[in-house]
Amino acid sequence: MTSPVATAPSAAESLSRCRALVEPALRDRVGRLHAWPAEMAGYAFGWHEAGDGTGPGEARSAGSGGKGVRQALAVLCAEAAGASGGTAVDGAVAVELVHAFSLLHDDIMDGDETRRRRPAVWKAYGTGPAVLAGDALFALAYEVLAGSPGPHGAEAVRRLSADLRDLVAGQSDDLLFERRPWTGPEAVPVDAYLRMAEQKTGALLGCAAALGALLAGAPAPTVRALSTAGRQLGVAFQAVDDVLGLWGDPATTGKPVLGDLRRRKKTLPVLAALAAGSPASGRLAALLEAPGELDADGLRRAALLVEEAGGREAATDEARRRLVLARRSLRSVPLEPGPAAELLALMPFVVGRAV
Questions:
Q1: Which superfamily does CATH assign the domain made up of 11-352 to?
Q2: Which of 50, 62, 107, 233 is the most buried (most CB within 10 A)?
Q3: Which distant-in-sequence residues (6+ apart) come within 8 Å of 185 by Cβ?
Q4: 59: buried, middle or exposed (CB in 10 Å: 19+, 13-18, 0-12)?
Q5: What is the Cα–Cα distance from 211 to 42, expressed in whole angstroms?
Q6: In angstroms, rounded to a whole number, what is the distance separating the alpha carbons of residues 302 and 266?
Q7: 248-257 confidence digits (pLDDT tens)
Q8: Measured distance between the N- and C-terminal CA atoms of the chain, rounded to whole angstroms
Q9: Is 293 helix (H, G, I), strand (E, B) or coil?
Q10: What angle (nearest 5°) sits at the alpha carbon of residue 326, between those of residues 1 and 314?
């Protein structure tokens, strides 16, 4: 097994290189949609403002629609398997389209009115149009992947379908968790939350890594190892995202202060704090189970109790543990040293991201 070289490009450099390879193809594919869903998709990707008439192929005029982590995973995993990054472009485009589709629908289901410090697509264009745009992106993802040249297109479509099934299962559990009590036999245990996070958040990261390796013709053990690394990275990302949902700077995260607590959303720090069984856990449970909405003071007290009961530390520790597991999986199979080093450099950047 080869070991990564020590002079890997920075994560930002890797993301920029992979984005330059994938984004022209992504814009081209989106531009082939009907003009209306194409406009909404372009807005979702951060290519323009709502209703300004800018097409998918034109210059970006709005904030970035994300850092392109999934497309970078696809490209780097293809290179790590010994192929060119171009081999993975269709897989990277498909995953980006599916990710955008999932965000459009998630924002509607969760009632989130903003996405990356701008109105969510459903707020900018309406709920029905946003659903339509998401459906268009979903269909386009399969069209792109099914038409990918080479002998692995059908297998790639099966992989995307399986991982999407997991994503839907995770999203289903996340919504169902909101109906369950904070304490008692029906409460959500931490391990159930982590399984949900691996599906809802980890599935697409694992899919991106697997598609890159698969389209490169990598052997099955390599595809499995890279998929596992991506899924573990996804759980680490979710754990950090949950911490930022309580204690992050809104100017950086784009999320309202204590927004997750205001919505009584079950997140890892809160569930870990409740499971600790300490006096602070009991006080937190009483606060969360009280009727009515928490006011600003109640939200601040709840956040302090989560931290006092060890919820913040537990979530941070879980993120570190999952990052170790992701690295271990990556190192378990033979990979090209340069791209492997880039993947290793990318992992802590993903987990440490504020968005």
A1: Farnesyl Diphosphate Synthase (1.10.600.10)
A2: 233
A3: none
A4: exposed
A5: 24
A6: 13
A7: 877 676 667 7
A8: 34
A9: coil
A10: 150
